[in-house]
Structure formats: C-alpha cells, structure tokens
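Hello forum,

I keep getting stuck at the same step: I have a sequence, I want structure tokens, and every attempt I make locally crashes halfway through. Rather than fight my setup again tonight, could one of you with a working pipeline run this one for me? It's a single chain of 347 residues.
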Amino acid sequence: MLTKLPFTHYPALVDWPTIYALMGLLILTTSVEQSGGLKRVATWIIKNMKSERTVALSLVSSAALLSMVLTNDVALFVLIPLTLSMCKTSELLATKIIIFEALAVNAGSSLTPIGNPQNLFLWQRFNLSIGTFLYQMALLVAFMVTTLLVLTYVSFRNETIDLSSSRRESPLDSVLLKSSLALYIPFLVLTKLHLAPYALGIVVIVLAFLRRDLFKTVDWGLIAVFVLMFIALRLLSDLDTVKAFMSTLHVEQTTHLFVSSILASQVISNVPSTIAMVEYSSDWKTIAYGVNIGGYGFMIGSLANLIALRMAKDSKIWIRFQLYSVPFLFITSLVTYLSLFGATRLF
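Reply #2:
Ran it on my machine without issues. Output:
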C-alpha cells in the first residue's frame, strides 16, 4: 500500500486549474481540426511541392508551427493522415517523414505554454506570463528547429515525386473554424486570470451549440491519464523511499536537475517527469528544458512519439525512430548543457 491517505482526499492531489486548461485546449484544438481548416491549409501548402525534399521540409515545418499554436498531438492528427495519403506510392517515404514530424512537434511545442501538457502544467503551476515563457524557451526551440530542418534537408533526396492523389480539397466548416479561433484568446486570458473553470464553461457552451457531436472526438483518455498521473506521482513522492532516492540525485543543483529531468523522461515520459520534478524543485526553466529535450531519445520520452508511431501503422518505424531520435537527444542535450553551464561543468 502506497499511503494511508483516504480515497476521498485523492481529488485534492490533482492540479485542477491545469486539468481545466488542458480540457479547454483539447476541445478547442479538436474543434479546429474537425472543421477541416487545418487539412485545407496543409493540402494547400504541399500542392505545388515538386521534390521529396521540399515535401519533407514543408510538412516538418508545418508540424513544428502547428504544435506551437495548437498542441503537439493535434498537429500529428492533422498531418500524419495527410502524409499517408500523399505517400501512398511510397511507404518508406511516409515512414521517414512521420518520424521527422514526430521530432518536429516535440521541438515546436516546446516554445509555448499551450504546445504540450508539460509546458501547460509548468505555466499554471508557477503562474508565468506567456511572454516570460516564450522568452526563456526561444533559444532552445530555435536551436532544435534549425537543427531538425538541416537534418531534414540532408536526409531527403531532391528527386521529383508525384502527389496528385493528395490534391482533393477537404470539406470546410467555416463557422466552426472561425468560432474556435475566436475563442482562443479569451480562453487563454481567462485561464491566466485564474478563471479556467469559467473559460472552460464558455468554450463548452459555445461549441456545444454549434456542433454537439464534436465532444465525442475529444481525447478524454488523455485527461483521465493526466488526473491519474497527478494522484499517483504525488502519492509516490510522499513515500520515504522515494524521498531518500531523490535526495541522492541532488536536484537542488541545477546541473543535476537538468540531467535528471532528461533521464526521467526516458523512463516514465516527460509529462510524469515534470509532475515529479516540481515536487522537489521550483526551478521551472531547468525542468522545462530537461523534460522538453527528454521528449527525444526513446519513444516513451513523449506521448507525441507514441501517437505518431502508432498512426504510421508500420511495424519497422518503432526501430527506425530511435536511429534519428537518440542522436538528436544526445546532440541537443550536450549543446544545451554547455550553453547553460559551460564546458567546465561537463565533468
């Protein structure tokens, strides 16, 4: 038994403002995706692409940008089906592009508080302004995205490919799209003012009026997982054995916190790692750097990795992903470590 805490006290372990914010963002991003607007834009972007390299660069860039303003999983839900449709004549090309799209959403979503669940949690937990968050993450994300685009350029050939099968226009619900986009800023403002429950209520009422069946497609499982992670990890963090183990990591030291956040992400994924680390440190920037970089490496590092690899429906992609992701983790970790702490603290 982990704890003697009664079950009735478990809800108090959950960071509900974060849950409300996550629910609202998932509903909004699902609404934008269901409107067909993102597929229309993505199809338009790649219509005139002539070579394998330009297609890859276009989709990878789109994945990074979409994950900044929506969420990493929604970016994948939009782009991976499009990628599979485009590359019907080349399964190998589709698999390779999807791997890079997974890397791209991990990089792009690191920039903003709404890009991924771990950033959303840190933003809420430490009451940060959006400007502060963007400023602190900008250099890291610039390096990750630039490195990824260079890697994309050298990894794909400049050979002409036929994408005629991907040129069909997607249906568009313009009312749903405009309403969803109009709700974003008010939702973020109200959430920042600690009025997340009211912000969520407004989103639910407006979108239920427009399209009630939309809520069937929201990833409610992700919400449930997030709630359970809060409960489980906070129960674990209160155990004497866990406290003793964490004391051996010396996460009060910035370098140890950075490395521990990366390594923990490789074992339990970056969202649980974030929730665990904030129980022992208030250095949100170092945690954010560590867990966002930790989304690379092994596929368990980020939920986005698992989503992308599962959607690809290619049994070999699970192994091929590590061939790109692990070196990317090593390079990004090393460069970030040196830039934060200097070469003198490497050993």
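Residues 13-345 form one domain. If your local run keeps crashing, start a new thread with the error log.
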